[in-house]
TrEMBL record:
Organism: Durusdinium trenchii
Pfam families, sorted: SET
UniProt domain SET: residue ranges: 44-98
InterPro entries tied to this protein: H3K4_H4K5_MeTrfase (IPR050869), SET_dom (IPR001214), SET_dom_sf (IPR046341)
SUPFAM superfamilies to which the protein is assigned, alphabetical: SET domain
Top-level lineage group: Eukaryota
Gene3D superfamilies: SET domain
Official protein name in the record: SET domain-containing protein
Length: 237
């Protein structure tokens, strides 16, 4: 069978489905149904939004995930079409993304937690296994132009590999911690904006007022982000 966790006991839902359709079913059937549902859930592809629909294809279900996949897929009618998104060497494994395209731009931590929650595995693709997260750069505190990167495991660690390529600036541990705290603040802003959708014009003003008070190294990203956000909101409203 395709990838799935081995269920230990049938859920209440599986038991009620079996009860509803086959009251005198063999005892093992709810567990079998649970197992089949797990296979389906972990190997299906999104098909439609309204109504929400999913589809399963046998061979595509064997394609592994990679956060920098060499292929992408789409539908033509109900057919599953696989296309290369870069040159693929002979013998190289075909990979697609199990995450939405925009999620591939998120940090390793974020991608891993999404995949663990929805697909039950820890991603160990080459992007996720690299010690520095290339999508989690911070503005260089030295030249203010380049980017610096940190290693993240159980804590944040500045490393020479992540030093600014323009001026060679290497942050201290406390500077790294400060930048990550600022990053959390930016993330909090974005979540607040999401919650306040509907009064879009207030976002930029609020962000600017807060920025004057806060004055941290990440503040320069708040205004452009707020503008991008306003643009996004006005397109989608
Ligand atoms: Zn990955
Ligand atoms: Zn620099």
């Amino acid at each position: 069978m395709l990838f799935h966790p081995e269920p230990q006991a049938p859920s209440e839902d599986s038991m009620s489905i079996v009860q509803e359709f086959w009251a005198s079913a063999p005892k093992a059937l709810p567990l079998k149904l649970e197992s089949l549902l797990a296979v389906w859930l972990l190997n299906c592809f999104e098909h439609s939004e309204e109504p929400v629909g999913f589809s399963t294809f046998f061979l595509p279900a064997f394609i592994s995930h990679d956060c920098r996949p060499n292929c992408m897929w789409h539908y033509e009618g109900d057919s599953f079409i696989l296309r290369a998104r870069r040159d693929i060497s002979v013998g190289e494994e075909i990979t697609v993304s199990y995450l939405a395209e925009e999620s591939l731009l998120e940090s390793i931590t974020s991608r891993r937690s999404q995949l663990e929650a929805t697909k039950h595995f820890i991603c160990n693709c080459s992007s996720c296994s690299s010690s520095l997260d290339p999508v989690r750069g911070f503005k260089c505190l030295g030249c203010q132009e380049g980017e610096i990167f940190f290693e993240f495991d159980d804590r944040i660690r500045p490393s020479t590999e992540g030093a600014c390529r323009q001026c060679g600036f290497l942050a201290t541990s406390s500077q790294a911690e400060e930048l990550v705290a600022q990053e959390a603040k930016v993330e909090e802003y974005i979540q607040q904006w999401d919650r306040k959708e509907g009064s879009a014009a207030a976002y930029l003003t609020e962000a600017t007022t807060e920025r004057a008070r806060w004055n941290g190294p990440c503040t320069s990203v708040i205004d452009p982000l707020a503008r991008m956000y306003l643009l996004h909101v006005s397109y989608s409203l």
